[in-house]
Each structure stands twice: as C-alpha cells, then as structure tokens.
Amino acid sequence: MTEPSRRPVRPRGMRTFRHVHIPAGPALVLVLALGLAGCGEAEENGSAPLPAVVGSWAVESLTTGGRTLHAPEAARVDFAQDKAKGSYGCNGFQAEVVLDGTTAMTVTPGMSTAMACPEMEFETAFAKLFSGRLTIDRGPDRLTLKAADGSTIAMTSQPRDPDAPLIVTDWTVDSLISGETVSSVPAEAAGKARFSLAADGTASGILGCNRFSAKATVDGSTVTFGPLTTTRMACEGPAGEVERTLTALFAGGPLTSKIDGRTLTLTAADGKGLTAKAASAAE
User: Fold this and answer.
1) CB 205 within 8 A of CB 242
2) Residue 1 has pLDDT above 50, yes or no
3) Nearest one of 79, 88, 87 to 107, comparing CA atoms
4) Are 272 and 217 a contacting pair, CB within 8 Å?
5) Which among 95, 104, 149 is positioned nearest to 127, based on CA atoms?
6) 114 band by pLDDT with thresholds 50, 70 and 90
7) Mean pLDDT of the chain
8) Rounded-to-integer distance, Cα 233 and Cα 26, Å
9) How many Cα atoms are found within 13 Å in the side-chain-facing hemisphere of 276?
10) Rg (CA), the chain
C-alpha cells in the first residue's frame, strides 16, 4: 500500500518570503547614491564643528557709517570658550560670548576700564560694534564679525603675548581699582607712577611725585611691600592724589598679583588695587 505524500507543515502565523531578483540598473545606483548622500549630510549637519575662533586676534580695522577706522596696535580680542577679553586699543574689556552654530555669535559686554585714551573715536566705535549678534566670516588666518547694519570688525590671527615677568619689569600704573570700579589715572598724572621689583627683594619707583624704595617679598602670587622710604616733595593735584592712593595700597598689607600678557593687576583684601602696563623694549 502506497503511503500518501506529506507536505511540510509550516507553523501558523509564519509568512513565506519569495526571492525576487532586482537587476542592478541605473535606478538602483541612484537610490544607493541618494542614501549615501543623505547619511553624509546628516553626519555633517549633526556634528559640524564650531568655528575656530578660540585664540588671540589682532584687530585691523572697523568699517562703520561708510568709513574705515584703522586700529591702534594694541587693539585685540582673545576668545576662550564662552568668554572674550582684550583691548579696545587702550582700555581693556571683558565680555560673554554665545556661539550660534558656525555662523554667528552673541556678545554681551562686561567690565571695562575707563581711561582717557588718545584714539577715543576708534575705542568708542569698537565698543559699540563688539556687542549683540554678529555674523562670523572665518578664513584661514582672518576673522570678520559683521553687525546687522553691515558694520564690520576685521581681525587677523596672532600669537598671544607671553606674560611679562613680575620681577625686573618696569610697570607704569594706568588705572586704580576700588571694588568693582576701575578708574583710569587722571590725564595730568598719566605715566608718572612707575615701579619695579628687583631680584634682590627690593622695590623702587615713583609714586606719582616722590620717589620711593622698599623691601618687597614675592611669595607665589602674593607681593608684600615693607615700609616705604620716600623723598619729601610737596605733591598737589592729580599726581598727589595718585601718590596718596598708592602709598596706602603698598603699605596696607599683602597684595595678590595677576599678570595677563603685559598687564599686571595688584589687589588688596579689601578690593582696592591697581593695574599697570609693562614697558616695551624701547622704553
């Protein structure tokens, strides 16, 4: 007796897939090309790097109101993460910076000094432009920031100035600090208050009118002046006021020092202090 043929039993619910041959024609090549392009675009859009603005930039010029203003040599901006600091040419400034992708940044100005400077037209225009939303045009060694009205700040890359040494540097006092307030030395007294710290543990200079000398102890970032020996000229006016302020500061106890490039800041525990600029090699 012949046994009946049996068909394989397929579990209930299982679907049967048929093999379909698709020729590798132009249509398939196009589909694959579009798919790969989409992946590349997604990767690029999802992980595009931020513009490389971090670093030091020398300001070359401003264009505003149909005019070009050329920058003084000291004008610069130093970008670091979400902050910026620099010099308008004479006055120093700080700001917060928020990058918007690769094309724009928003600048919120912070503290700045308020010295009377020779090129105030440029400084005023720079301070006005470096604020708010600015679009970014980044080249290999240049950076141009553009405001909504079309005004621009043109910059070129430059290495950061090395910090001047605290000792054996001639420092010229350019501003006085009182808490959160930084005031420039009065114009009549500008450049008259100078000092230096020697390697033998002494300090000397001019307080604004009278010369002085003293012992000076440097311990890390702390500077402590001993009793001051001074000449005894009668000092009146702005130079006399600066002298009295510096005499009280140097005699008031330990000062915390901070050097940023060619700028020295000395601050006392009560928030009073000074900023001073390092003399150039030609001075």
Assistant:
1) no
2) no
3) 79
4) no
5) 95
6) confident
7) 82
8) 96
9) 27
10) 32
Domain ranges of the chain: 55-157, 171-278
What pLDDT score does 141 carry? 87
> What was the pLDDT predicted at 37?
39
Q: Confirm if 142 and 154 have CB atoms less than 8 A apart.
A: yes
Helix then strand then coil, % of the chain, to nearest 5: 15, 40, 40
Helices in 2-110 by DSSP H: which ranges?
26-46
pLDDT at 261: 82
pLDDT of residue 116: 73
Dihedral sign for Cα atoms in the order 166, 168, 173, 178:
positive
- Is the pLDDT at 145 greater than 60? The verdict is yes
pTM over 0.90: no
Does the domain at 171-278 match CATH 3.40.50.300? Answer given as: no
Residue with tokens 């120093």: 92
Tokens 């909504």 belong to: 148
CA distance 257 to 219: 10
Burial class (CB in 10 A: 0-12, 13-18, 19+), 120: middle
Q: Which residues contact 113 (CB under 8 A, 6 or more apart)?
A: 91, 92, 93, 174, 175, 182, 184, 275
User: Which of 196, 194, 201, 195 has its CA nearest to residue 218?
Assistant: 201
Specify the residue for token string 């006016």: 237
Which fold, 55-157?
Answer: Lipocalin (2.40.128)
pLDDT in tens, 74-103: 899 999 888 999 999 888 899 999 988 888
pLDDT at 39 over 60: no
- Rounded Cα distance between 169 and 263, Å, is 11
Between CA 90 and CA 101 the distance in angstroms is: 32
Q: How many residues belong to the chain?
A: 283
